[in-house]
Design goal:
Layout (H helix, E strand, L loop, with lengths): L1 E5 L7 H15 L4 E5 L5 H13 L3 H22 L3 H28 L4 H25 L4 E4 L6 E2 L10 H11 L1 H5 L3 E5 L2 E4 L4 E3 L5 H11 L4 E6 L17 E2 L1 E3 H9 L7 H9 L4 E5 L8 E4 L16 E14 L9 H12 L3 E6 L3 E7 L4 H9 L3 E14 L9 H8 L5 E5 L6 E7 L3 H13 L8 E2 L6
Parallel strand pairs: 1-2, 1-8, 2-5, 3-5, 4-6, 8-11, 10-12
Antiparallel strand pairs: 6-7, 9-19, 11-12, 13-15, 13-16, 14-15, 16-18, 17-18
Helix pairs in contact: 2-3, 2-4, 2-5, 3-4, 3-5, 4-5, 8-10, 11-12
The structure holds aspartic acid and magnesium ion.
Length: 471
């Protein structure tokens, strides 16, 4: 069994939805799929605009925007659902959702206040609409499919906009409401992102929450795999805008994926896939534009995957721009204790988060994102010693599980970087990443050199792949 999640850009237009239907029906030949959908691209943002307009009593604007949402979904129906009676009933369903949305707008306007609870109700319409159209389009193409209201399965607490599921209840619900449908050979179509409290009030799991829904459902239904269909060719060795030769990574571990996403790369957020990690369910990141390419599989145990080998030293290079270095130096640090604690508590009080640290006996260098509250920190630090700021730097992180056990990596990094002024370096003993800080201007040169060093050899070819549009 597979959970297949499609993001907004993979279902947002007629072409995209047709392609998604082809992908789902091809999978159906192999196994029973549960399809989890986001709202059509841009719809959630529009719903938030509607909610905020309603809260400010800008009813006309809110109604106009909901008209746009109705028109968009009716356009999809127009092409994707042909059988007359089905067509009529799905048009009615779309119209009914949008009337409910308009009722909500009027209700919020009358009360004069947008509550967290009604905010979530607004947001839920995107997924309700996309799944309704998608399921009917599947039926219209002759497949057996069933629409499931996720609010009957995903029972959450009442932390609106960031609700968390009661897992035991939900997994029982999933087994009772979804499993029998799969067993009878149906394709199940349901919503990502939304849930409901025990009292039946609609909740949402937070922006981008559909990936989380997919991972949870996968865990509850003990699915063999989770597929996340997006508009990119899996996880890349580097941002292709920086390095045109960037390749997609075939296999990576959960730790590598988590590390990369903390370091600023556009990968799945580690928290969202943790339900899958815990049950050792592989997560595939796939491109709906190039369904034939293999994408990236993220797994906690690469050894158990058939047909793919996990190797490669460096897996990916992540870049975080907009950083600045704070250099602090004081003779008072020599042989003292508690000095570091004092320095860091200044950052803590100002709410400034420190990213990288490198220290010697009398000086410490650290990187922070450029923020307004930094000035207050610097004033306090100046009372304790010499402070120097280097603005406009970027952190480059070289990530790979095998880094910690391999020799000669540092040598290769430094050789590759011989034309670049490295401002700071950090690598911990058990770390799976080496961090370098360079001037922002040097980022393209530095990253291209590193990418060439680690990804151009033949030894790595089996686990990296050119994106489909470059083949
Ligand atoms: N539609 C929601 C959002 O845009 C959830 C998702 O796409 O995962 O945040
Ligand atoms: Mg999304």
């Amino acid at each position: 069994m597979a959970v297949m999640k499609f993001g907004g850009t993979s279902i947002g237009t007629i072409t995209a939805m047709k392609r998604a239907i082809d992908i789902v029906t091809a999978e159906r030949m192999r196994t029973a799929p549960v399809v989890v959908l986001s709202a059509c691209g841009g719809v959630t943002n529009k719903l938030i605009e509607i909610a905020e307009s309603a809260g400010k009593s800008e009813v006309e604007k809110a109604i106009r925007l909901s008209g746009e949402i109705r028109a968009h979904h009716l356009e999809l129906v127009d092409i994707l659902v042909q059988e007359p009676s089905r067509r009529e009933s799905v048009i009615t369903a779309v119209m009914t959702y949008v009337s409910e949305l308009e009722e909500l707008i009027k209700g919020v306007d009358i009360v004069g206040e947008l509550t967290a609870r009604s905010y979530d109700s607004f947001c839920s319409f995107g997924e309700l609409l996309s799944t309704t159209v998608f399921c009917q389009a599947l039926l219209d193409s002759g497949y057996e499919a069933e629409w499931v209201d996720m609010r009957r399965v995903m029972i959450t607490d009442d932390t609106f906009s960031m609700a968390r599921p009661f897992e035991e209840i939900c997994s029982k619900n999933a087994r009772e409401a979804i499993q029998p449908l799969l067993d009878s050979g149906k394709i199940v179509v349901t919503q990502g992102f939304i849930g409901a409290t025990k009292e039946g009030k609609t909740t949402t799991l937070g922006r981008g929450g559909s990936d989380y829904t997919a991972a949870l459902l996968g865990a509850w239904l003990q699915s063999d795999e989770i597929q996340i269909w997006t508009d990119v060719d899996g996880v890349m060795t580097c941002d292709p805008r920086l390095v045109p030769e960037a390749k997609s990574i075939r296999v990576m571990t959960f730790t590598e994926a988590a590390e990369l996403s903390y370091l600023g790369a556009k990968v799945l957020h580690p928290d969202t896939i943790s339900p899958a990690v815990q049950q050792n369910i592989p997560v595939y990141v796939l491109s709906s534009h190039h369904p034939e390419s293999k994408g990236t599989v993220i797994t906690s145990n690469p050894a158990t995957l058939e047909g793919t080998s996990y190797s490669g030293l460096v897996k990916s290079i992540a870049v975080k721009k907009g950083q600045c270095i704070v250099n602090f130096r004081s003779n008072r640090m020599l042989g003292r204790y508690g000095f570091m604690a004092e320095i860091f508590s200044i950052f803590a009080r100002a709410g400034v988060s420190v990213d990288m640290v490198s220290t010697s006996e009398v000086s410490v260098s650290l990187t922070v994102s450029r923020t307004a509250s930094l000035e207050a920190v610097l004033d306090e630090l100046r009372n304790m010693g010499e402070v120097e700021i280097e603005p406009d730097v970027a952190t480059i992180s070289i990530v790979g599980d095998n880094l910690r056990t391999s020799k000669g990596v540092a040598g290769r990094i430094f050789t590759a970087m011989k034309e670049v002024n490295i401002r700071m370096i950090s690598q911990g003993a058990s770390e799976i990443n080496v961090g370098l800080v360079v001037e922002e201007n040097d980022v393209p040169k530095a990253v291209q050199a590193l990418h060439h060093e680690f990804f151009s050899g033949n030894d790595t070819s089996s686990i990296f792949e050119k994106p489909a549009d470059k083949r």
